[in-house]
Amino acid sequence: MTCRHYLVVVFALVFFTFGGNLLYAQTQPIVVKGSVMADGEPVIGATVMVKDLLTGTATDIDGNFTLEAPSNATLVISYIGYETVEVAINGRNSITVELTADTFTLDDIVVVGYGVQRKVNLTGAVASVSTRELEGKLVSNALEALQGTTPGLIIQQGSSNPGSPPSINIRGLNTMNNNDPLIIIDGIEGSMANLNPADIENISILKDASSTAIYGSRASNGVVLITTKKGASGKAKFNYEYMIGYQNPTSLPEIADSWIYAELYNEAAVNSGRTTKFTAEDIAGFRNGGTNVNWVRELYKTNSPQSSHNLSMAGGNDQLSYFASLGYLDQNSMFKGPDYGYNRYNARLNVSHKATKDLTIYLTSQFARNDIKEHAYWTEWIIEQANRMPPIYPIMKEDGSYNYPSGSNSNGLQRLMDGGYRSNANDELLGTVRAEWDIFKGFKLTGSVGGRIWNNNMREKRIAFEGTGDAENKLTAQFYRSKNITTNLMASYNTQIGKHSIEGLAGFAYEGFNDFQFTTSRITEDSKFDVFVGEQSGDDIRNSGGAGDWSIYSGFARASYNYDQKYLLEFNIRNDYSSYFAKGNRSGLFPSLSAGWRISEEEFWGDAANYVPSLKLRGSWGLVGNNRIGAYQYMRTVSTTNGISFGDNVVETAYFSSANPDIKWETTRMANIGVDLGLLNNSLNVTFDLFNNRTDNILVNLPVPGLFGFSAPIQNASVVETKGWELSVNYRLTTGAVSHNISGNISDSFNEVIDNKGTEIIGGYDVQTIIKEGYPLFSYYAYRADGFFQNEEEVAKGPHLEGITPKPGDIRYLDKNGDGIINPDNDRFIVGNDFPRYTFGFSYGLEFKNFYFSMLWQGVGKRSKWMRGESVEAFHNNNEGPLHVFHIDRWTPTNTDATYPRLTMGSESANNAAKSDFWIQDASYLRLKNAQIGYVLPKKWVNPVGIENMRLFVSAQNPLTFTKMKGGYDPEYTADGSGRAYPVSSTYSFGLNINF
Predict the structure, then answer these.
(1) Based on CB atoms within 10 Å of each CB, which residue in 103, 429, 479, 489 is the most buried?
(2) CA dihedral 132, 135, 137, 141 (to 10 degrees)
(3) Residue 898: which of 279, 267, 276 has the closest Cα?
């Protein structure tokens, strides 16, 4: 079925079902008027339904309602956050109803795979994140607002580059391949990059096998379930939110002033056997108003604006409800330049229609467009050049032209301002149609079909600068499209027999994906021409493309049993059939079993309930799978290249890849033990989990001998075990007129390579990592520094790097094998890794009358970051710069307890520049992630003008960071250690939210 046919079917279903308006005639009707109150205030928009009928209404702005109903009927009154009340009419014409707060609010209903459950009955490790965490935060991606809110949810914001999402991980690393969790949005696999945070209704984090096995495929790294907002019966309600803020880098490289640079340059030159460069007069000139320019700071603007608008409408009646929204985000780049930044446009329509008493049809649909405009050069190039420039040179000459100091053939600011642009226009259409048919009491059939279409159009225009290293005018165009379709058919049944509650679900799913991409580029003397103008072949033309597809067929089932709300059992199973593997290996079976015991419901608990009113033990075990590798690796593929010369002609040659037809699923065994504890009348809640994951048959390319003649084929060869724990605490209390909400969480995970067939896999160049049995994945592999040589006697005793004679003030290294020579084959150690451990978050919120305040602190207790190159080395790579502030505390004969070795340059730096743990920094940190204060205007001010409520607020994102990282680099930095990354931003914003 084509996309066009699919859309026709979707809209035909929607409009057909909306047309089926059924009327129910009732006998002896009377007109009932009433009011709904809560805490002495009228409840606006409460739903008032006639029980067992499809008629109903909603309360108005004064909490009043009027409807026609049989004189002997029963009214059902409901409102979010309050207990549902049933009131018999008994012939009355006037009724007043008082609602009370629901003991089990939305926080106690958790979305799980293909359904929902009450939190008290959960047996798996599932966390539900309140959408309050998203409110009032000016973020471009919802993940930024979730950081630090949930134990085990590891989010790293290594950059605030417009359109660049943070990384996300659940409970650590389980494999050498993709460790990203599966993200499901309204039943469809998707990305949070294009999701409007204002549209989110619920976020559930599924962490263990009992909660993820129902998704089987690709669920070994956890699942993030997102449901978007729906409408409700009642008159139309509108919500508008506007936020505007200003961004600045949280930190930038701390470059020493020009006069300090000049003094220490002379010192490094003398230490390196060179002549000095700066006279005393030069240094005095710098100190007394001379040139002192931080080239990196010159790349960024001050107070780059960011804003968002969100408008939504929700309402409906007893048969039709809807939620519609429009959103716009405008994030300017902090880089200087012409209109760089990120614009996102969101539109959503979610509709539910009760076609008959037993049939309900749901439509969820989203369209998102994002436009990203940036410079035409790679960000790393621009920052690298600026970071290597000493402050003694102006970035612009007096005549207004760009400066190219000695040793430089480019200017980063010029690249930003005049070097052209790269634009990405991305369109996403995502939608699902779902029908639920209640066959008889407790038995329901559900069918759904959904899809996601993603288009990307990239255009790049890079402009050359005469006399520089940027000598090529280059035009590039790229088109990418992907399509994904998902179908589900399920049958579910639940029943209550005395104290026995039984639920069952069985279903079938299909997911298919295909993509296509084409890229063309040309080098041209005149960059005004379009890339498609002229000949499409030649020495200056490059064309490439590709396509791929995959599919998964699945069957799944779940059965749960609950006896007297005390003893809980659940079983899940899924069988996936994946095209990633050859026939005979495509099937993967993923079962799970979990159990819970609500001890506090036992009779013997007795008086203990006064102290511990809620106590539940739970445990789970299961298997989940991972197939996230490149497609077609079970078969040999062929590619062509210009590889052989015959005379003056170069001819194409064919290259056959290596393949392994026997590869199969990676399988992760997950075990979890947890306890949920309620104290102080359940106002203090504690959750603790221990988990152990073991991934077998990891798909990896183990090294092969060179005589093999091909690249290493992928094979199921490795085993990794991940252990960890999670703790979360939440406390709600009221002191007088002030309500407090305090919560905290901390978690840790640690992985170990159990089996790698006795091989070691060393990767990287400037920063080297190793995969080795008995150690964590991707551990740093380097020499271990052992202080500085303090005198010639220590130098003579060694040990020395092979081929290098150090001097006093140079770094000394541990001699692992004791032979007096330091070399990479014998003397490297495993010296940590950069995956965060002991991730934590702490939040506090209070409400006092119409005021509210909240803050969220987030951090990492242990993380190592190997920094390299110009980010940490003085006079790196024989360049004139840089020189950071921390280099000032360098070793000299009179400063022997320094933190940095003697200053050197050129070949004299070879000893100190060796790959060692001296360059590995402590990247633990504490960050105030968000602080917010707001005021809700009194209703008597806003209700007369038609506004239900209105709040004003100010917010700060990333305003404070405490870290031991040197050089001015952000501790969340996740790139290769060079420091060449767009910075994380701190944003101060103002906003208003109006409901009417």
Answers:
(1) 429
(2) 80
(3) 267
Structure tokens at 442: 């407790």
DSSP secondary structure string for all residues of 178-209: --PPEEEETTEE--GGG--GGGEEEEEEE-SH
Mean pLDDT throughout 874-883? 84
- pLDDT surpassing 80 at residue 72: yes
Q: Two tokens at 199?
A: 């549209």
- Whether the ω angle into residue 42 lies within 30 degrees of 0, i.e. cis, is no
The pLDDT value recorded for residue 18 is 37
- Cβ-contact 691, 171 below 8 angstroms: yes
CA distance linking residue 680 with residue 943, whole number of Å: 38
Tokens 């041209």 appear where?
524
- Angle at the Cα of 266 (from 264 to 271), degrees rounded to 5? 95
Give CA–CA dist 769/752, Å, rounded.
14
DSSP state, 254?
-
Check: CB of residue 239 under 8 Å from CB of residue 993: yes
pLDDT at 8 over 50: no
User: Do residues 223 and 215 lie in contact, with contact meaning Cβ atoms separated by under 8 Å?
Assistant: yes
Pair 209, 157: CB distance under 8 Å: no
**526 by DSSP, 3-state: which?**
coil
User: Backbone phi, then psi, for 600, in 5-degree steps?
Assistant: -70, -10
CA distance 873 to 383: 16
At 53, which helix (H) or strand (E)? none
Per-residue pLDDT, 655:
66
- Please report the sign of the dihedral spanned by the C-alpha atoms of residue 726, residue 202, residue 744, residue 308: positive
Say which range, 54-68, 367-381, 670-684, has the weakest mean pLDDT.
54-68
CB–CB of 929/974 below 8 Å?
A: no
pLDDT at 13: 36
Residue pLDDT, tens place only, 799-852: 999 999 999 999 999 999 999 999 999 999 999 999 999 999 999 999 998 999
Q: How far is CA 434 from the centre of its chain?
A: 28
Q: Backbone phi, then psi, for 940, in 5-degree steps? A: -65, -20
* H or E segment to which residue 630 belongs: none
> Rounded distance, CA 562 to CA 569, Å?
6
Q: Encode pLDDT of 402-457 as tens digits.
A: 999 877 788 999 999 999 999 999 999 999 999 999 999 899 999 999 999 999 99
**Which residue has 């109150």 as its token pair?**
37
Q: Which of 9-13, 318-322, 736-740, 920-924 comes out lowest in average pLDDT?
A: 9-13
Is residue 63 a contact partner of residue 79, using CB atoms and an 8 Å limit? Answer: no
Q: Residue 569: phi, psi to the nearest 5?
A: -135, 145
Q: Is 964 left (phi over 0), alpha (psi -120 to 50) or beta?
A: alpha
DSSP for 83-133?
--EEEE-TT-SEEEEE--B-SS-GGGEEEETTEEEEGGG--S-EEEE-GGG
Q: What is the 8-class DSSP label of residue 913?
A: T
Asked if 323 contacts 239 with a C-beta cutoff of 8 angstroms, the reply is no
**How far is Cα 697 from Cα 268, in angstroms, rounded to an integer?**
53
H/E element holding 679?
A: strand 666-679
Among residues 816, 813, 767, which one has the least CA distance to residue 794?
A: 813
Residue whose pair of structure tokens reads 């006697």 in the numeric block: 793
Give the residue among 422, 214, 245 at the shortest CA–CA distance from 332. 245
Contact between residue 290 and residue 394 where contact means Cβ atoms under 8 Å apart = no
**Integer Cα distance of 346 and 369 in angstroms:** 7
CA distance 644 to 627: 37
Distance CA 689, CA 201 (A): 26
Residue 3's CB is within 10 A of a number of other CB atoms, namely 12
Phi, psi of 794 (to 5 degrees): -65, -40
Around Cβ 423, how many Cβ atoms within 10 Å?
15
Token readout for 447 is 């069918």
Beta carbons of 795 and 808 less than 8 angstroms apart: yes
The enclosing H or E element of 704 equals none
